[in-house]
Amino acid sequence: VQLQASGGGLVQPGGSLRLSCAASTNIFSINPRAWYRQAPGKQRELVASIRSGGITNYADSVKGRFTISRDNAKNTVYLQMNSLKAEDTAVYYCNAGNIWGRGTLVTVSS
Predict the structure, then answer these.
(1) In the chain, at which end, N or C, are there fewer CB atoms within 10 A of the end residue's CB?
(2) pLDDT of 61
(3) 64 Cβ neighbours under 8 A, 6+ residues apart
(4) Can you tell me whether residue 110 is helix, strand or coil?
(5) Tell me, what DSSP letter sits at residue 73?
(6) What parts of the chain have a pLDDT lower than 70?
(7) For residues 7 and 4, what is the distance between their CA atoms, to the nearest angstrom?
(8) Is 25 left (phi over 0), alpha (psi -120 to 50) or beta?
(9) pLDDT score, position 38
(10) Nearest to 69, CA basis, from 32, 38, 15
């Protein structure tokens, strides 16, 4: 099973991005699906997670700005990021159990 993350890029403060994480096969039974991020010089941290029943969990720093969702038919998890801040700059990784995607870079800068 492989996870392919996409959607990163350069955005101005206050802007939005949507990340996608597509699985190469049906991994509906793996819970939770999650997004992590790692900023330069910092440890990887959990950003958001979602279970198959739709229960979500967010880091305090992104609550109210980020939304995680999943499309089980497409084996894909999304992370909608709004009101982005410079401190959101990081490489974002998608995760399912012990499976990790390669990461996609998000840079928030004017």
Answers:
(1) C
(2) 97
(3) none
(4) coil
(5) G
(6) none
(7) 10
(8) beta
(9) 98
(10) 32
